[in-house]
Amino acid sequence: xxxxxxxxxxxxxxxxxxxxxxxxxxxxxxxxxxxxxxxxxxxxxxxxxxxxxxxxxxxxxxxxxxxxxxxxxxxxxxxxxxxxxxxxxxxxxxxxxxxxxxxxxxxxxxxxxxxxxxxxxxxxxxxxxxxxxxxxxxxxxxxxxxxxxxxxxxxxxxxxxxxxxxxxxxxxxxxxxxxxxxxxxxxxxxxxxxxxxxxxxxxxxxxxxxxxxxxxxxxxxxxxxxxxxxxxxxxxxxxxxxxxxxxxxxxxxxxxxxxxxxxxxxxxxxxxxxxxxxxxxxxxxxxxxxxxxxxxxxxxxxxxxxxxxxxxxxxxxxxxxxxxxxxxxxxxxxxxxxxxxxxxxxxxxxxxxxxxxxxxxxxxxxxxxxxxxxxxxxxxxxxxxxxxxxxxxxxxxxxxxxxxxxxxxxxxxxxxxxxxxxxxxxxxxxxxxxxxxxxxxxxxxxxxxxxxxxxxxxxxxxxxxxxxxxxxxxxxxxxxxxxxxxxxxxxxxxxxxxxxxxxxxxxxxxxxxxxxxxxxxxxxxxxxxxxxxxxxxxxxxxxxxxxxxxxxxxxxxxxxxxxxxxxxxxxxxxxxxxxxxxxxxxxxxxxxxxxxxxxxxxxxxxxxxxxxxxxxxxxxxxxxxxxxxxxxxxxxxxxxxxxxxxxxxxxxxxxxxxxxxxxxxxxxxxxxxxxxxxxxxxxxxxxxxxxxxxxxxxxxxxxxxxxxxxxxxxxxxxxxxxxxxxxxx
Length: 729
What we know:
Blueprint: H1 2-9, E1 10-15, E2 18-23, H2 25-54, H3 59-74, H4 83-89, H5 99-130, H6 145-157, H7 179-190, H8 196-227, H9 233-242, H10 248-251, E3 254-257, E4 262-263, H11 268-287, H12 334-343, H13 347-357, E5 362-365, H14 377-390, E6 402-406, E7 412-416, H15 423-441, H16 469-487, E8 489-496, H17 501-506, H18 511-527, E9 533-537, E10 546-549, H19 554-564, H20 569-591, H21 597-610, H22 615-621, E11 627-631, E12 653-655, E13 663-670, E14 674-682, H23 690-708, E15 726-727
Parallel strand pairs: 4-15, 5-6, 9-11, 11-13
Antiparallel strand pairs: 1-2, 3-7, 3-12, 6-7, 8-14, 9-10, 13-14
């Protein structure tokens, strides 16, 4: 719209008397304000770069060091041990500079070098401190003296009032695990899934790999780890996300839901206005780095914020890149790439496409009504989830970093592209938007946005397109593929409210481990075999993304077989606690860089670059993940008052199944008495069913509580009907 303002700012006509120049005062004012905002942004970025660059020190500490050095000099002592005199000798000779002035300048230069050296030392110390992870493996409530000292030092070296990216230079690099350790953990993880013959064969393959090709590939990874900030993330983004063959709709993108029991306004336009406003407020805070760095819950340990950099004004663009090594350098979204190049690279189509791809985010005003509503609220939640994940297959822009969906009845939701960031980063944004929309911006009694209409704002402009018949045929073919994928998706979303983390903690159990083992038990009852994987984050390290936790262990399988085999309750409880401890250990190992799958993946990438084949790696990378799960915790609890206003909770979000014959399960622990589940699978697989699996999850949760805490168990209690969606106007 800026060019439109500029076009009307200057109008002139040629007359016999000369040129009659007319200036639009309003347009010139808008241009001036636009430029002023631009310069303010530049100054803010410059200021933040300085503050982040010297962190954990502060710019004002430079003045303190200078004054301290000058003060010691006036006491006739030399804190520089002769360095100030050396600097003075090499200063450019100036007749206008007295000897005393030269001494002061030399002292300032020495102070600056000392200050920078102190910053470098503090940052190096903080990096070494953040590389210590033994605290994660200590028993809850029993912190060692070493960890107490470490925690105090972290607080000292962390500085005060950090900006969003202040810790980036102090985060440690992701370590490359030893080949021997990774192979040992891998074989341990697959032992419950294989019979003796299969396990013996895999053990032999692993041994041959370690003794031959493995160490050669490992050498390249160590070299990369020395050079790159993270030896995994760029290859993970490139080969897992950007070069994927499958459509990203359903297969890669994920979604987030609105409040479960409350719709702040039934007016679609009003909800869209407040939601967009909230997102733009977050973007301004992001640009100014005013968002507090994320930390490990309950600690001062920072998490990497690199994924936030591409949150807004970002689009995934298709390419036709292929290579000789087709196993790894395969084609990415070729039909869309070809159509984009042929029909959208010039003229009006390019201008319209640029408007979308350069936009902050995408907004869909959906003409359907969604949410938990009607006579069958449970089924309506399933439809709501499917709508957020794929819509009508033509009313979302899945390549945008995220798309906001506003429904006809005022309900909203979010669909996010996966390559640029993982769910916790998007969830942080979504929590802020929901809270700001309802609790800060709000609505008037009629349900409209508060405030007065600004008539000076430019009106929306329609984007024009020229779509020839050949392009329309390509669009129709792609739509048919997308529609078939959407129709095949089976989804079930439900809130488990019989008990939550409150009762689980009273049983002296980790809520996450409890739910994980319940999911394993449910899957075993559905498919009669163990299988499980969980996503863990590695953001303790610079540019960290995720790691897979192979939580199906010998301990968890022993517990499930004992429970299903009718063993005594005491035996089952002992095995359950052993399995829970094992799960927590595996999760911590993955978080601290000692995972299995990302290391093996990178070894596989190196093997393809070198043009060598590894039967072991090929088999490992071809393993299907038939049960993939992820937890979405609430990160900004302070934004929501779940005690006084428990209705203002989101149901979380979900994703599609990873395998055609598998399940995708996302869950969120809300407050003390609720656990939300999102289950996906495919209708085309006769062995899966989202509702069937959901019923088994509910039963498994009740059975486990009854096993651990019979006195607290409410296994005979049925879930109450969820309250109807309220209109909070």
